[in-house]
Specification:
With about 190 residues, this protein is of the alpha+beta class. About 45% of the residues lie in helices and about 15% in strands. The chain folds into 2 domains: about 80 residues, Winged helix-like DNA-binding domain superfamily/Winged helix DNA-binding domain (Arc Repressor Mutant, subunit A, Orthogonal Bundle); about 100 residues, Beta Polymerase, domain 2 (2-Layer Sandwich). The protein is elongated, with a radius of gyration of 19 Å.
Length: about 190
């Protein structure tokens, strides 16, 4: 019980743990961890020291890496990785100020499908790519994994849809979830696939 209290007492720690669980073979410096998990630099040392003290991570010359000998790995994977981490509203809210979004589809990491080519598809008009990238980084910090995404202006997406573009087909033909859809891109238009 003591290990649970130690490990799950802060949101920053949970983000860092997800990062290591989803990237078990990678090594991260403190700077990498701050950037990927969006945890403040001032709290990183405390969090890293605690995770190392319970053998969750190990120190190597290049940085920190997940400790494969950690005895509760399966339990923490079930708790922090397999469980749904973000609801649809949180994802949509993350992109409210990026332009006029007409279609938002999640796949891959968001629906626990490792075989997906993309994790997120954003279609809209007057999209601000910088703001979208900022939103993506926030999502990555929450889920602990990189998000593979594509952005299309509506006209380009409709053209690709009508041309049976391979990327668009790969998204719509395989498991995905539509979490926002404008009338202009109604289900009838997407059912061509």
């Amino acid at each position: 019980m003591e290990i649970l209290v130690k490990l799950l007492s802060t949101a920053a720690r949970v983000k860092i743990m997800r990062l290591f669980l989803l990237n078990k073979s990678k090594t991260f410096t403190n700077k990498d961890i701050v950037k990927r998990s969006r945890v403040t630099p001032s709290s990183i040392r405390k969090e890293i020291n605690l995770l190392a003290s319970v053998d969750f991570i190990k120190k190597y010359t290049e940085g920190w890496s997940f400790n494969p000998a950690f005895k509760y790995v399966k339990e923490f994977e079930n708790l922090l990785v397999s469980a749904d981490t973000l609801d649809d509203k949180t994802i949509v809210d993350n992109f409210k100020k990026v332009g006029r979004i007409k279609l938002l589809i999640v796949s891959g990491v968001f629906i626990k499908n490792k075989d997906s080519r993309l994790d997120l598809l954003i279609v809209g008009d007057k999209l601000k790519k910088g703001k979208i990238e900022e939103g993506i980084r926030k999502l990555e910090a929450e889920i602990g994994a990189e998000v593979v995404y594509a952005i299309f202006e509506t006209q380009e997406f409709v053209y690709r849809l009508n041309m049976f573009d391979k990327l668009v087909r790969d998204i719509l033909d395989f498991p995905h979830k539509v979490i926002l859809q404008n009338k202009e891109l109604s289900t009838y238009a997407l059912k061509k696939f």
